[in-house]
Amino acid sequence: MGEPAEPVLRQRLAALSLEQKIRLLTGADFWALHAEPAIGLRRLVTSDGPAGVRGETWDERDTSANVPSPTALAATWDEARVQRLGRLLAAEARRKGVDVLLAPTVNLHRTPYGGRHFECFSEDPLLTARIGVAYVRGLQSQGVAATVKHFVANDSETERFTLDAQVDERSLRELYLAPFEAIVRDAGVWAVMAGYNGVNGATMTESPMVREVLKDEWGFDGVVMSDWFAARSTEAAARGGLDLVMPGPGGPWGPALTAAVRAGAVAATVIDDKVLRILRLAARVGALEGVEPAAPAPAPWSDTEIAAELRATAAAGFVLARNTAVGSDPMRLLPLDPNALDRVAVLGPNAAATRTLGGGSATVYPPYAVSVLAGLQAALGTDRVSFATGVRSTGRPAVAAPPLVSDGEEGADGVEVRLLTAGGEPIRVEHRRTGEFRAMGSFGPGIDSAAVVAVELRATVRAATTGEHQLGCSGLGRFRLTRDDRELLAVDLRLPPDADPAAVLHPPLQTVPVHLAAGERLPIVLRHEVDPAAAATTFALLVEPPHLPAEEELAHAVELAREASVAVVVVGTTEEVESEGFDRETLDLPGRQDLLVRAVVAANPRTVVVVNSGAPVLLPWFADVPAVLLSWFPGQEAGNAVADVLLGAAEPGGRLPTSWPADPAGLPATTPVDGVLTYAERLLVGYRGYDAAGRTPLLPFGHGLGFTSWEYLTLQASGPAGPGQDITVAVRLRNTGGRRGREVVQVYAGHPGGRPPRSLVGFTAVEGDPGETVTATVELSARALEHWDEQRCGWSSEADAVTLTAAGSSGADGCTAQLAPGP
Ligand code: BGC
What we know:
Mean pLDDT: 95
Largest sheet: 7 strands, antiparallel
Bound molecules: beta-D-glucopyranose
Number of strands: 35
Low-confidence stretches: none
Shape: globular
Distance between the termini: 43 Å
Radius of gyration: 27 Å
Structural class: alpha/beta
Helix content: 10-25%
Strand content: 15-25%
């Protein structure tokens, strides 16, 4: 075990011809790299990431442990926990034949409008870096590679393929590059993904930053791969420092790069360096015969161990944003006493359909997902729990799924899939649980993909209620929906020519209304003609049942709330507003969810709102509701963890990794102007911006209430430090509440001029019993107290005294001390 010996890697390299070398520099297919049996190199498999390990199949047949999404992980502020989760992901990767996980995503929450906000950790570079380092260490300690992405300033999605982010050098260094630097230097990450976007005029797969900063300055010795389809040129990308074009087998390298080397336009040593890096990666993950992997293989986790870990981690990331008393009751509403609850009304669109993860390439298929409704039913018994959706948050018809569809009239839940040849012969007939079909690059092992000209989904709709059902399809290309050979629908669905490739994951759709009586069975067939030029075949059969009229639905929820001892309203985002390939247009909760909250709390003041979103949403009713729990996208154990926290079995351990705005005023936009997105706020991102403008968000960065309270007493620093020296800070604080609890002690530095008023420079967590005084020891790295000096092109320590504040959030007072300038 240990790092692969360089002479061995060089020997293997020397055995390859130029053509063999260049073949290794482009993917073999959508997820894998080429094998080269001549030198004992097996096929290397990559997979998304970050909320689980999907593997090579993109559907529910191959399930993955669905861990809480990155905002939830960052909200734990708990590196040991995240490192353990990295080990779990490594075990998942090995179980699924994956060597390289395409995670973590460490772009910043520059603005809550960023569509993939849920997939990134935080608005703060230090928190992002520390959680990212823990994630990578956990994964790589078990011999599975991490791929930190997307290098760099890919902080929003609009025009992501072409946008040029204009970022000043200091903000780049102190904010956007900082997490990558820490993960390269402190976690020794084995792979980096170059983003689609450009920065300061150069597209990232060709940017000089790849070689000059990442490789030369930071000493990164792993593989730089392109984001999928991001490599655009032969020579510039090769000379710029990109090592691997993904996916394959096409792309701008291959024979064109061989020709460029033969013509002397790209040096042979440049190619050798890339191949060496791929061999080093292969050796590290155990894919190079005769070379010991860098770490032992992970031990498998049992389903019970996974469930327990994910349940505890979800609760550890929940942020209790508000918790007040109701009426004459002196106690705060949470935690609820399960013995004092006659009936709990569980309401809202995300109650039964809780989102456990964000959309886009991060999608994995969990073996099960516990909704908040199911979690509370399991904890309290179904008799004590009533349920209504109240309002709808999406207009998009649902993918056909049980119990609404069966495979044949008397068949199993789900649909039948037929892969058909030109002659109409089925090449493969399969049973699937839902009407979602995805084939990325191939129709699966052992199938002659070129021979598949059409895919049919066959199902029997089992109407449970009488009324108008919407039947249809979503996807790209030609579709025909029939019942008893009679055509219901024939469409050719298209995207605009400049659409983001991720749009295939939320494509256009069309439905037709069909009236069905309760109990009626309707066999239908959806046929899709495969486009041989498309990189992927992905479409869905849609079946949406009839709904109650909107006002009846709302009135029903309000009625249930009125009759209950407590109402739990679960609101949240949908895949239409929070996913990959687009940014958010509004921070409002979709649909009439705000109306639902207001109507429920008016009917029953004992109302808890659970917010199920990966990123901030506006909460205009916040001050009128006694308890608000932010659950993020909490993974497959979502509902069990919510029940644990609401009923007091677990403390909500989370602290905000990002500020939650009171209103959208002043937030940076994500729309480029003439292809340029200017980071005009420079260093003033998130809480730094609020502080500088003297504005308060609804919820400050770092905020989160446990079930107890803390008083900060003193702060003592070991300084003054010399240049380049770390500092230790001791913070004394007392548990002033009635329960044992955990507090995340955050240390902020206030700089005299030219910097944001406060920046996070260190944190640690402590636990204590009621009345107990504890001391938190917080290590502040020298780098955290330095700034990037644009004149000197290097890091400098502050010339003036710095004020350190230890507090429970960026908005709290806590206690302070002066740190004199270094000698
Ligand atoms: C995403 C990457 C992802 C890749 C492969 C891209 O669209 O930006 O984060 O790893 O697809 O799925």
